Amino acid sequence: MFLAKVVGKIVSTTKDEGLNGKKILIIAPIDMNGAVTGKEIVSIDSVGAGIGDQVLVTEGSVSMYAFGENHIPIDSAIVAIIDTIEQS
After folding, report:
1. pLDDT digit string, tens, across residues 55-70
2. Where is it found, in Gene Ontology cellular component terms (predicted)?
3. Residue 30 near residue 5, CB atoms below 8 Å
């Protein structure tokens, strides 16, 4: 899992049937201070995130389980919207 910021969205009227009804967002990995640390990737939203939100993201084939399914073609899922990050 990693921290990210939602920086955009994708609208697609034609897509795999498993993606119907799911929001496709563009995210950028961030560090604990909110600074972008990597290139953007596409992720499927499971929690209602929007542009500007800081989120927690999972990667790999296990991402599909965020939707309670095991047959949708995704490699990244947004699984939480971050309220605060505390550093020690």
Report:
1. 999 999 889 888 887 7
2. bacterial microcompartment
3. yes
